Amino acid sequence: MLRAMSLFCMTLGAAALLPAQRGPEDVGAKGRLFGQAFERSLEKSRLHGTAAGTRLREWSRQFVELTESGRLEEAAPAGAALNRAVLDRECTKVVASWLALRAAFNGAAARAGVAPLPEMTAVTFLPATSKTVSHDEVRKAMERLEPAVKGAAAEHAWYAALAAESGRLSEEFAGREPAMFQQALENTLIAAEAVNRLEGKRAEWRAVREDLNLLAIMFGYPLLADSERQADLISVQRRSRRR
What we know:
- The chain has helices at 2-9, 14-17, 24-43, 51-68, 72-85, 95-112, 130-133, 136-151, 157-175, 178-199, 203-219, 227-242; strands at residues 10-11, 119-120.
- The protein has a two-stranded antiparallel sheet.
- The longest helix is centred in the C-terminal third of the chain and has 22 residues, at 178-199.
- Helices cover 72% and strands 2% of the residues.
């Protein structure tokens, strides 16, 4: 079941690997539309005025600017975080503009040999309850998570964001307030998407990802993808071009 959920929530379908016919100017136009819509959405969301919301605004600008200038590999971590952020219940109005921007990015990525952003599909979120938060599997994952995050530490801003959000997640778990814990989990998973893009092959990060994916399953969120699978797909794509 775990495997089935992973494939359903995050797939790299044929559409993600096909080159788009338009260039960076198309990405720029779509990026500006998304950026404006995302700003409006954040102003009305629970993230307004929070550190997580501030980071998302910056990542949105960064993603558009780097993608438009053709620096796709540098743009990808911010894109990965945004890809999950738009699944937020309060960001539904930006989904259409994000899908258009993601398709433009993936088209450019396919031409450049850069791993595309997963075609993440929204699922039905499971409202957190006291029973779920106190579940034995959740407790064990939370006990492992904090030392695992420290053990996998990396020297970049993406990991600093993850460490901050996972720290808040631990605090909310101790407080046993289901709604607050769920919000902290959502923010942690958003930051983790960016880190997963950069650190996915490191053994230390895999331990973190495993526990975060367990929590994702318990609350109905898409799993963090295995970046090695993305690399495999790009490798197949490159070989096919040489034939």
